[in-house]
Amino acid sequence: MSRLVCGTCGLRLPAGSSLLQCSCGGLLEARPSPPFRGRRLRSTFDQRLATGDPTGEGSGVWRFRELLLPGRGVLISHPEGNTRLYRRDELSRWAGVADLALKHEGENPTGSFKDRGMTVAVTQAVRAGATALSCASTGNTSASLAAYAAQAGVPALVFVPRAKVAAGKLAQALCYGARVLEVRGDFDACLRLVREASAELGLTLLNSVNPWRIEGQKTIVLEMLQQRGWEPPDWIVVPAGNLGNTAAFGKALVEARELGLISRLPRLAAIQAAGAAPFYHSFRSAFKRRFRVRAETVATAIRIGDPVSYDRAARAIQQTRGVVAAVSDREILAAKAVVDGAGIGCEPASAASLAGLRQLVRRGIVGRRDSVVAVLTGHLLKDPHATRAAPTAIAPRIAEVERVLKGMRK
Ligand code: F0G
Prior knowledge:
Blueprint: E1 3-6, E2 12-14, E3 28-31, H1 38-51, E4 85-86, H2 89-95, E5 99-104, H3 114-127, E6 133-136, H4 140-152, E7 156-161, H5 167-175, E8 179-183, H6 187-201, E9 204-205, H7 211-227, E10 235-239, H8 244-258, E11 267-273, H9 278-284, H10 310-319, E12 323-327, H11 329-341, H12 348-362, E13 371-376, H13 398-409
Parallel strand pairs: 5-13, 6-7, 6-9, 7-8, 10-11, 10-13, 11-12
Antiparallel strand pairs: 1-2, 1-3, 4-5
Helix pairs in contact: 3-4, 3-7, 4-5, 7-8, 8-10, 11-12
The protein binds ligand F0G.
Residues 112, 114, 137-141, 239-246, 301-302, 347, 349-350, 377-378 line the site of ligand F0G.
């Protein structure tokens, strides 16, 4: 049976525990124990992919259920996952690596990777009898929680930093029916408040301090490995804010190797926005110091100064011989323009991965012949204002169309 272990004091709890944080303040971690391993586990996952997996509702998350949440019962699934890998020559050229694929997590039901963690954590919460769900968010987590809470029929309370959430995300949380609290403070203040409020008021907290969120987000990596026939790339590049994904990716990779799904570990590259880069500064100190900063960046999704999964993300970087980089807002917007211009599109935080990859190639850390998968975390429509492109206003006359057309041909 899987169980929960505290990453700080080592306390062990049964997986069915309704506790989501250890009494010592440490974060709990799930330890899955699937009934089989290696080739048999791989072919179980592959068969479900081939046949559509009716018990997992065709979900690209629940296909890997032995590694996620033990027990049976209700499943709160949209379904999610099954996101594509994109290859485009112009993106490879821009980044400087020939073998580049972008995994687009913006193709999840609410437009970001958060749905993968949310389906697992909301399912666990409902099975454990939760009566109200909560989270702090820069936008995507609240959109995702709102959708899964609506499906489960459980009320959700979301805490967001006032005037710092992109329009599309706020609309989602409101439309799906969550109660949205705009906090006069930044994301870090929202997270402190929701952790305290949830403990005091009996709300089930759905931020990535919840171990089941991390379990669900492992499937970004598991699905990507499966899409590549279980042949790992040399590098996986991911934007990094609160560090849930960085932690989840490391956990997925180490477990995948221990279970014989893969035989070698890819290296992780976590990319922060330069104005919100406490983890990058820590990395530069060989993780000897932990930094907290007042965060500012155009990539509002990762505008986070005190990431909650710091310790486990540091472990993920160390275990995979990974690196952490920081990119400026200019680099982020330049990368976004290239992803958008390829007809793929993403939100600004997502573009940090491609911007970071280009920088790492230029610095000689990622080799031009290395194989790379970079993750795009959210959909272009999440943040429709993050572009310099603007429509051309015209009067309803063909001469005006002709004039515009001439300008385009130049
Ligand atoms: N990319 C996007 C689009 C995000 O929304 C987030 C986090 C990240 C990257 C960073 O991922 O936190 O796992 O390091 N968004 C959270 C939210 C904080 O509230 O939606 P991370």
